[in-house]
């Protein structure tokens, strides 16, 4: 594949590559999360690399094996490992053991609620712990694919084979089942609590409008969707899985039903990671050839953050103010960009 050429007349693009502060992590990376003003780059095995504003790197051992799942609320990073443990890491680098699976099964999924509750899964069982209350567990029909807390109330979405189970762990009511054939992995509520979307094992998303459980089929991807991010205000859902960023509209009461998605930042490489800025209508997109583009949602204008020619981008994260972008490719070649 040819080098991305900012001077190519057919595609004029502004470059910010010279403003990136490079960070060498020295380990493979799977995700990134801001903890206050530090970036936590999660490794595939054992360690998290904490990077401060000056680019200083300190590694923290969090698991005695593979790190399988992560979730962060900006204050702490919760992780599940193949050692059967759920641990939390804060901005100071302090590690706290939150739970251990009694059978030492893999912790496949974790989720965090704004009030401090957290959830994790092992096999078919999802467990929630909120505050000082006891743990509540629910077994679903098959292995849990993903977990998400609703933005309002203590409600958990548990994705699995052939659908999603919606569960209020603090209520005696029977859990609600939303059916759709196939294997469901990552799951996310829209910020306004009106829609639920899953990424499927096949190259597709599936969604439900929660008011009436109407289905929303979001298909046409050439590859599985492994990254999803809600735009500021939740008006659109950005996704990976194609050679453009696919943006599904969620501003109306019908969401994307009967509508075509917007397609932004096309390249001759696949989008593998997306991260919407939390404060403004900008997103960062990482590609399979190592390219990173920053894209304005209003008109699709692009800024080149990183040229191609490296391993695929593995992690993108914005700080809470939306003023600092952190990224890493799969090999741990990372960087920070101040807006």
Q: How confident overall, as mean pLDDT? A: 94
Strands, count:
30
What share of the residues lie within helices? under 10%
Shape: globular
Distance between the termini: 29 Å
By helix and strand content, what is the structural category? mainly beta
Radius of gyration: 19 Å
**Uncertain spans:** 1-10
Order of helices and strands: EEEEEEEEEEEEEEEEEEEEEEEEEEEEEE
- Strand order, biggest sheet? 3-4-5-6-7-8-9
How many DSSP helices?
0
Task: Tell me what portion of residues adopts beta-strand conformation.
Answer: over 45%
Largest sheet data: 7 strands, antiparallel
SSE arrangement:
Elements: E1 14-15, E2 21-24, E3 29-35, E4 38-43, E5 45-51, E6 57-72, E7 76-81, E8 85-90, E9 95-100, E10 109-112, E11 118-122, E12 125-129, E13 136-139, E14 146-149, E15 156-167, E16 176-189, E17 195-200, E18 205-209, E19 214-218, E20 228-230, E21 236-239, E22 245-249, E23 262-264, E24 271-276, E25 282-287, E26 292-296, E27 302-306, E28 313-318, E29 324-329, E30 333-338
Parallel strand pairs: 1-27
Antiparallel strand pairs: 2-30, 3-4, 4-5, 5-6, 6-7, 7-8, 8-9, 10-11, 11-12, 12-13, 14-15, 15-16, 16-17, 17-18, 18-19, 20-21, 21-22, 22-23, 24-25, 25-26, 26-27, 28-29, 29-30
